[in-house]
Amino acid sequence: MLFPIQLLLFLLLQQWVLSGFSLRASISLKKLGNNLTTHFPLGAYVPVEFNLLVDDTIKLHEKNGLLGVAVRSCIVYPQYHCANWLPVMTSGRSAITKRTSSNPASNPASNPASNHKSEYGFVLPPQWKLPVDSFHGLVRPTTLGRNKVTLEAQFCIATHRCADIISSPSVTLRVTNDSCTLCAQHPVVAQLSALQLKRAGRKIIPPTSVMRTSSSTVGAVMVNPGGTPLSLHQLMVSFMYFELEAGKDSFGNTSKGTIIGMGTGTIRNGPVPGKLCVQVKYGAFASQVVTSCMRSEVLEGGSDIPLPWRFLPSELGVSGITPGNTTQYAETPSIWSLRFGLTSPASASASSTFPSDPSVHLFGEVLVSITLHPDDVNLRTIHSSVERTIMTNSWAYNPLFHPSFIAETTFQAAALHSSRRHTYVSFIWGETYASDALLLAHGLQEVGTKLEFMVVIMTLPSDDLNVISDTTMARLQNSPDIDRVLVIQGGEGTDPLQDSTDGKDAKRTDPLQDSTDGKDAKTKARLQKYSRLLFTGIRGHGIPPAYDTRVFSKLLAFALLEYNSVAVIDVDVVVAKNIDAALLVVGDPTNHIHFAGVGTGYFSAAFFVLRPDLKVMSEMIQVVRVCDSWRFPEQDLLNVFYGAGHPSGHQVQQRLPDKYLCINPTNESVASKCLSKTFYE
Fold first, then answer.
1. Are 647 and 185 within 8 A, CB to CB?
2. Is the peptide bond before 225 cis (omega within 30 degrees of 0)?
3. Under 8 Å CB-to-CB from 550, ≥6 apart: which residues?
4. Apex CA 156: angle with CA 151 and CA 161, to 5°?
5. Can you name the residues that pair with 608 across neighbouring β-strands?
6. Which ranges in 540-594 belong to alpha helices (H)?
């Protein structure tokens, strides 16, 4: 049974006399969408939203702290089980206090008035009291096939006497793992899949629908976050103003803002002075709300999204918006942006100007919108469309997630297995990276590495900007500091699923000549195969323009089966000390460490060590096909994949000490001890 959009399930809470007053309430359940109800990923929480309608008596007693309500979702078929209760206000907002930043200077989007305060005066009954950092309210199916989900609500008064639980009619989900076999074992990946399916099934609205809440002829369309998952970083918020085109009303009169049919609009260039408010909803049932207001003049103007838009119209959620004057577009700002600070657990290997408070965010969906109150009263209030994105905070998903450093004794024991084969590898494209690879190779030799260094050049069929000159290519091939140079074709335009690992691809001609001479044919054929599989699933619409989709090529290191361990290293780092021990400890078969980032917090993708494994490579490809749009593409993906939800647990959640990677290359006392690079610019 599928629910129509905005279906109101009016449920009468029976006349119930408590302390002299009666209660009436109704609950509404919003549509999940056909994509999600017919292909719900096994292991994901059901991301439902609801509206709770109550009479004035209930609101009055709630305001006076005499009555409260909690909600939860339940599976009623094939077996009945429910999530923990989530105390809410009758408005639908969470009744649990969530602490935000107390320093508005460091986080301009914070709401100081709400810090450490709660408007909820009702004393929670014992069955509702739960740890603030627990994930509650939402349920997740645990069996394949047909599952029925319902919402339950319970009202209690101050004496902890409670009414009978009311529940909504159920929605039927078809739970499957057809498109993501990994989802059943990796709940974070399952949730990504569920939220992407929900977003893909959203209704596309015309410009006039955005503006129904006001009579203004100017509206706003959200561009970012654009469905991009967020992993413990800033939320980039950007939007465009648009003007309704002149049309004719039913009397044949031309009028600005009156449009025949679905309605169209044109991008408005230049600022609109006024008071801008950003609203962010997140958590179970989107019940956590943060609102912040500022002057629109302080926003960053400009556009880093060239025409045509990197986003498809359906991905923006609004149809019928046209670019307008492209010449003026290039000269006058059309996209307006701000950065909304996200908090995260602190780590010596992570750089953040924001306070550490993992309880602020819950894993799940984030809804972002803006409202502008223009100084020009003729424009009236401007409301934007609502954009959905995904918070993938592994710490909030599981507060018990505490990665640990690899013990020093483990490093010492690993040195006994140094005879095994290990390599550093850098994935590059273009002249600049090729020159940097030569410097890195020399740097590794200068610090006394005893291990191999491999360079993989990723080419694109139609990339004329990132060409490596013949001279530089010859230097790479003939460098005594580089053991192997392979050229792999990646990106769009390749033929997926056509080659195998038997080496027959060695006969194919590469756009550049590498130095393998056929001796590495199997390695190259394997990398080529998985490159095609990987990049076939990457569209990159939500990736910031500053990033090349080839950053995902680092994942191909999992296919280097000739090695016991592989260290992926960016070519723009400076190696100041021998770090071979990091590869030896992961390659040691006795300690069961399969992956190691640096630091116990959010780790950088500039340096990490892994054990090659085609099963993991295939799982990575699954994740990319579920979602390829990340704030920091391959770095966020790796942090989520190896975060709290990973089924291997301790085998992939032990970390290298911070001395293996630093963030301040200008500090000589620090740089003399470790690898150096600035990660967060």
1. yes
2. yes
3. 427, 429, 458, 460, 490, 491
4. 130
5. 568
6. 580-587
614-626 helix and 521-536 helix, angle to the nearest 10 degrees: 20
For the cut 60, the answer to whether the pLDDT of residue 133 exceeds it is no
Whether residue 449 is predicted with pLDDT greater than 80 in this model: the reply is: yes
With a CB cutoff of 8 Å and minimum separation 6, the contacts of 561 are 526, 612, 614
Cα–Cα distance between 168 and 343 in angstroms, integer? 35
Closest CA to 396 of 432, 353, 345, 348: 345
Helix (H, G, I), strand (E, B), or coil: what is residue 585? helix
pTM of the model: 0.79
Q: Considering the chain, what is the average pLDDT of its residues?
A: 75
Residue type at 100? T
In degrees and rounded to multiples of 5, residue 411 shows phi and psi of: -60, -40
For residues 613 and 620, is the Cβ–Cβ distance under 8 A? no
Integer Cα distance of 495 and 527 in angstroms: 14
Question: What's the helix, strand, coil split of the chain in %, to 5?
Answer: 25, 25, 50
Q: What is the pLDDT of residues 504-518, one digit of tens each?
A: 333 333 434 444 456
Which backbone phi and psi does 22 adopt, to 5 degrees? -110, 155
Pick the closest to residue 37 from 164, 170, 142, 169 (CA basis): 170
pLDDT on residue 306: 43
Using CA atoms in the order 181, 187, 193, 196, what is the torsion angle rounded to 10 degrees?
180
| Structure tokens given for 420 | 């095994």
Q: Whose CA is closest to 284, among 109, 84, 91, 147? A: 84
Who's near 349: CB < 8 A, 6+ residues apart?
598, 599, 600, 601, 602, 603, 604, 658, 661, 663
Phi, psi of 559 (to 5 degrees): -95, 5
DSSP one-letter string for 354-396: S---GGG--SEEEEEEEEEEESSTTT--EEB--EEEEE--HHH
Amino acid identity, position 611? R
List the single range of 248-252, 295-299, 361-365, 568-572 with lowest mean pLDDT: 248-252
Amino acid identity for residue 172 in this structure: T
pLDDT, tens digit, 9 for 90 and up, residues 4-44: 322 322 233 333 433 344 568 888 778 888 888 999 999 88
- Residue range 89-99: average pLDDT? 72
Phi, psi for 650 (deg, rounded to 5): -60, -25
- What was the pLDDT predicted at 245? 63
Please give the Cα distance from 300 to 278 (Å, whole number): 15
Q: Which helix (H) or strand (E) element contains residue 655?
A: strand 654-655
Structure confidence at residue 555 as a pLDDT band (50, 70, 90) = very high
- The pair of three-digit structure tokens given for residue 354, joined into one six-digit string: 């924001």
According to the model, what pLDDT value does residue 523 have? 93
Q: What is the pLDDT of residue 78?
A: 94
Kindly report which listed range (87-101, 253-267, 373-387) carries the lowest average pLDDT score: 253-267
DSSP string, 127-159: TT---TTS--S-----SSEEEEEEEEEEEEETT
